[in-house]
Recover the amino acids of this structure.
């Protein structure tokens, strides 16, 4: 069913509103939104793709006109009788020009060159549109399905905004996971300052999106703090790349963390020199606010860390790490573990990410997060089956860990007891040595000189000629 040209306001899936069909048509050509339901030739929007296909089959505008052979002007070729007294005219030779459509110049057919996409550009990538036999097939400017680097990424538009809204986490859950939602009273529960945080705007400065998947890469600055170095954001439903750019740090970098961030000093310097890097996290936040307002759903994996470096306060969040943990342990229960994006991508999606020696690929992580969230919304039964298996594995791993801890504690206790016993023996040995020394001092008194022995012998009336020796009974 057509939504009609005469509607006063036409609304796109991205929530943008247009006053006429022509404006909507230009928007579709630029972004690729609703391209499967929109007839570019007629500037007409349909509820379903089948409706558009039926329109193209039946509409007179799309039917091919029958080929009619060109009609020659017989009067021009017919010889005209000469007027009386006039000189005979010479026959006119007419040269027929080549058949070219009116208003079209002949051009050589350009080769089909694939569009190159600059992954570090802050501007949306524009691609050409091709014309088919019945309708123009619009190739979206920012859709990532043209990126050959991520063959596993899909252009599936998801289950819809209603299904996504149901998976938004409540504020209590978000605060417990380290999110700042804009309420200053939650500062006591956070381990970071909220002084420079800003809430998402009431109205986006640019073309607002219903849901955005994003990811950030960080580097280390003074005090072990995180600083934004790379920001990627894509439209969750259409897959359009909104942001993919390096962000020049506002403070001196102490650790580039290239193994994880994928950012090097040379890469950052080159991007800044060529104007392809945003100047600090404030500029990155402003760029994100062009597509985001208070109603936009932000999607990510452990997104609290990303919003922290962006200094963004937001309440409408879908975190894939929380979704999976709640499915395993039950909603409302304590989340005893969170699974990494790399492991979930391998287990649930069957794709391998973060395998490059050069560090993480920010766009790869963003697209993997998008795929993971859409998969969780679409494959609830498969997610439940995986969660049951994951819970069993967690309990088994927990049991083994506790057993290892008990064995370690037992070994440490035995080692302490041996050390205590050794110390006791040492103390007893030292005590016995001291007692023996005191005994000798008391009875011996150190009579070292012969005069002392003679004086002692006279005192006890020992014969002077009696030999004093160690063997003498008088010596004792």
């Amino acid at each position: 069913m057509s939504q009609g040209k005469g509607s006063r306001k036409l609304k796109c899936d991205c929530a943008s509103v247009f006053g006429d069909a022509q404006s909507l048509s230009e928007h579709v050509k630029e972004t690729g939104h609703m391209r499967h339901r929109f007839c570019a030739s007629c500037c007409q929007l349909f509820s379903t793709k089948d409706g558009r296909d039926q329109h193209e089959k039946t509409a007179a505008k799309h039917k091919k006109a029958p080929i009619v052979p060109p009609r020659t002007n017989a009067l021009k070729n017919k010889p005209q009788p000469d007027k009386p007294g006039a000189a005979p005219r010479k026959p006119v030779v007419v040269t027929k020009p080549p058949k070219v459509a009116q208003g079209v110049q002949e051009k050589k057919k350009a080769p089909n060159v694939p569009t190159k996409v600059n992954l570090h550009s802050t501007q949306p990538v524009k691609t050409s549109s091709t014309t088919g036999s019945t309708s123009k097939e619009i190739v979206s400017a920012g859709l990532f399905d043209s990126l050959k680097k991520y063959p596993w990424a899909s252009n599936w538009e998801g289950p819809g905004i209603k299904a996504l809204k149901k998976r938004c986490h409540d504020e209590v859950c978000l605060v417990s996971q380290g999110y700042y939602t804009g309420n200053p009273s939650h500062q006591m529960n956070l381990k970071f300052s909220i002084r420079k945080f800003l809430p998402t705007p009431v109205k986006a400065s640019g073309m607002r999106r219903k849901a955005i998947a994003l990811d950030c890469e960080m580097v280390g600055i003074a005090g072990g703090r995180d600083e934004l170095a790379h920001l990627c954001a894509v439209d969750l439903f259409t897959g359009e790349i909104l942001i993919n750019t390096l962000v020049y740090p506002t403070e001196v970098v102490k650790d580039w963390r290239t193994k994880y961030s994928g950012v090097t000093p040379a890469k950052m310097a080159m991007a800044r020199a060529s104007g392809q890097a945003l100047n600090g996290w404030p500029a990155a936040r402003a760029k994100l606010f062009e597509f985001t307002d208070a109603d936009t759903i932000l999607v990510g994996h452990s997104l609290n860390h990303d919003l922290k470096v962006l200094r963004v306060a937001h309440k409408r969040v879908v975190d894939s790490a929380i979704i999976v943990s709640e499915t395993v342990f039950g909603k409302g229960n304590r989340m005893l573990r969170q699974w990494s994006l790399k492991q979930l991508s391998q287990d649930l999606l069957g794709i391998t990410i973060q395998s490059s020696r050069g560090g993480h690929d920010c766009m790869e992580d963003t697209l993997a997060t998008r795929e993971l969230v859409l998969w969780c919304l679409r494959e609830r039964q498969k997610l439940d089956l995986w969660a049951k298996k994951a819970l069993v594995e967690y309990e088994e791993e927990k049991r083994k860990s506790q057993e290892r801890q008990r064995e370690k504690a037992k070994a440490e206790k035995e080692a302490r007891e041996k050390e205590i016993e050794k110390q006791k023996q040492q103390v007893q040995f030292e005590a016995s040595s001291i007692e023996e020394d005191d005994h000798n001092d008391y009875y011996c008194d150190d009579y070292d000189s012969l005069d002392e022995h003679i004086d002692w012998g006279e005192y006890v009336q020992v014969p002077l000629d009696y030999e004093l020796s160690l063997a003498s009974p008088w010596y004792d």
